[in-house]
TrEMBL record:
SUPFAM superfamilies in the cross-refs: Nucleotide cyclase
Lineage, opening ranks: Bacteria, Pseudomonadati, Pseudomonadota, Betaproteobacteria, Burkholderiales
Pfam families: GGDEF
GGDEF domain span: 254-390
PROSITE patterns for the chain: GGDEF
Keywords, alphabetical: Membrane, Transmembrane, Transmembrane helix
Family matches, as PANTHER family: DIGUANYLATE CYCLASE DGCC-RELATED (PTHR45138:SF24), REGULATORY COMPONENTS OF SENSORY TRANSDUCTION SYSTEM (PTHR45138)
E.C. number(s) listed in UniProt: 2.7.7.65
Transmembrane segments: 12-31, 68-85, 97-114, 120-137, 149-176, 196-218
Protein name listed in UniProt: diguanylate cyclase
Family matches, as InterPro entries: Diguanylate_Cyclase (IPR050469), GGDEF_dom (IPR000160), Nucleotide_cyclase (IPR029787), Rev_trsase/Diguanyl_cyclase (IPR043128)
Entry keyword Protein biosynthesis: no
Length: 397
């Protein structure tokens, strides 16, 4: 790497880190996108500038400072990046493990500096960085593994895995290669290859976090577009889309059933306990029903207190199974009243079940039949399940 001189690479790296820090601060302050994670990222980048030094510029510093600044700076920078990643992933896991690794690493560095060893502070710092990057790899795989494709997950994880590998390699070199730990301490700059490698890994981590941020923003937009903001059930539009897709699948022999649901005497809850109680009742219903449905089932809010569940069926004409699911949802709600401001509000709902017709691309006739059954359930006294009795099997629209 004769064409690369270390001071130039360090300057490029410093400018990159500075620009990245400013960009994250702008995201945090102006656009309010993941503000806490963005501030942590900005601080991490600024600490990276301090920790990498610039070769000759630190040559005149006292030895203690030349050891302390890079070691503490790098460990703190990677600790902040790992914390930012966890925030970005909206992980429920607490940050104790990161704090422990960062804290123990810092103690190790301090103890090494106090003992006058040139090797110990570097060992403590690099081992800490290796552990933190492994935690980051684990967080990423857990956080996005099931939701994004394996290739995308691998690409986003790669920079953190590379940092772990680089750190483990550095620990091995410190322990096995005599004199390796003296690099930089006596004013001798690190090799260009090492500097470039660290720069590439830092840039890769930044790109990975930017990709994560974009994914988060897109997921949020999708959620706002496809979900009912009050209950989290599918919006009417998203449900109609799911229904049209299910109708297309029906042509290939994959059956489904429609369960139309309407909360009973819902107006009374609003009138007697206020609109907020009505909202809480709708959220309560959806929470219970979602818990009672499988991941492949779709629950949509068609409007007001009216919902519809789309249940894929193993056998296309299996109306009894759909009725059993509807009965389970009915019984669950009837058995679990809403507790609202110290008052117990009993809730119930009526259910209409129907199978779809084959020649009906938008599923309108299936919906109409389920709706007719729902109104029969209302007319027969509410809090019950009715299913199209005359309907045995698939029909033309
Ligand atoms: N709190 C709240 N109320 C809503 C919402 N959407 C619709 N409503 C109310 O839901 C009530 C629906 O009343 P109705 O259509 O008479 O139905 P019901 O009282 O449930 O009577 P039945 O369906 O016959 O059992 C109306 O008062 C609407 O204002 C909402 O998002 N939140």
């Amino acid at each position: 790497m004769d064409f690369l001189d270390v001071p130039t690479v360090l300057k490029v790296s410093a400018v990159f880190n500075l620009m990245a820090a400013l960009a994250w601060l702008m995201l945090a302050q102006t656009f309010r996108v993941a503000p806490r994670a963005a501030r942590l990222m900005a601080a991490g980048h600024l600490l990276r500038i301090a920790s990498q030094g610039c070769g000759e510029c630190t040559a005149g510093w006292p030895l203690l400072l030349r050891q302390a600044v890079p070691a503490f700076g790098l460990l703190a920078s990677v600790t902040l990046l790992t914390l930012a990643l966890r925030h970005m992933l909206r992980s429920r896991q607490r940050v104790h493990d990161i704090a422990w690794v960062g804290g123990l690493g810092a103690l190790g560095i301090a103890a090494g500096l106090a003992s006058g060893s040139g090797l110990a502070p570097q060992l403590a710092c690099t081992a800490g960085v290796a552990l933190l990057s492994l935690l980051a790899v684990r967080d990423l795989v857990r956080g996005i593994g099931g939701q994004l494709s394996p290739v995308v997950t691998a690409c986003m994880t790669l920079p953190f895995a590379a940092l772990a590998a680089l750190s483990v390699g550095h620990v091995a070199a410190l322990l096995l290669l005599p004199g390796w730990g003296d690099h930089g301490l006596d004013g001798e700059p690190p090799t260009p290859a090492r500097v470039v490698l660290w720069f590439v890994v830092t840039a890769g981590i930044t790109l990975s976090l930017i990709a994560l941020l974009i994914w988060r923003v897109i997921s949020r937009i999708q959620h706002l577009t496809y979900r009912d903001p009050l209950t989290g059930a599918l919006s009417r539009r998203a449900f109609e889309q799911a229904l049209a897709e299910a109708q297309a699948q029906l042509q290939r022999g994959h059956g489904f059933a429609l369960v139309m649901i309407d909360v009973d005497h819902f107006k009374r809850i609003n009138d007697e306990h206020g609109h907020a109680a009505g909202d809480a009742a709708l959220q309560h219903c959806v929470r219970l029903w979602q818990a009672g449905l499988r991941a492949v089932d779709r629950l949509g809010r068609l409007g007001g207190e009216e919902f519809c569940a789309l249940l894929p069926l193993a056998a296309p004409q299996d109306l009894p199974t759909a009725m059993a699911v509807a009965e389970r949802l009915r019984a669950t709600l009837a058995a679990q009243p809403l507790h609202w401001k110290g008052v117990e509000l009993p809730l119930s709902a009526s259910f209409g079940v129907a199978l779809p017709a084959t020649d009906d691309p938008r599923g309108e006739s299936g919906l109409a039949r389920a709706d007719a059954e729902l109104y029969r359930a209302k007319a027969e006294g509410r809090n019950r399940v009715c299913a199209a009795p005359e309907f045995h099997g698939l029909a033309a629209a």
